[in-house]
Design a protein that fits this description.
With 84 residues, the protein is an alpha/beta fold. The protein has a single domain (2-77), classed as Rossmann fold (3-Layer(aba) Sandwich). Helices cover 36% and strands 18% of the residues. The chain is built from 4 helices and 3 strands; from the N terminus they run H-E-H-E-H-E-H. The chain has a 3-stranded parallel β-sheet. It is globular and about 45 Å long. The termini are far apart.
């Protein structure tokens, strides 16, 4: 799946200005850097904490133009249950 995401992002890079990547995998750091060279703004969304459960590569977090922590912004992403 990582290769598919990278290939699609490169193929779309001449048609987009912004990309939101929902991953913490440091293997995407090179992709983010290349997209930024093409003028694309990259936002990475993942889980970050100082404990053992950190889910984001430090390199990827630092390379991105902006980073959104899923825990901090949980209300933006969490589905609300409907009342019956």
């Amino acid at each position: 799946m990582d290769v598919e995401i990278a290939v699609k992002a490169i193929l779309l890079s001449d048609r987009i200005t912004d990309l939101v990547l929902f991953s913490g995998d440091g293997d995407f750091t090179c992709l983010v850097e290349e997209l930024q060279r093409k003028g694309i703004v990259v936002t990475v969304v993942s889980h970050f904490s100082r404990g053992d459960d950190c889910q984001i590569s430090d390199d990827l977090r630092r390379q991105s133009n902006s980073f959104m922590d899923l825990k901090r912004h949980r209300d933006l992403f969490e589905l609300k249950r409907r009342e019956k």
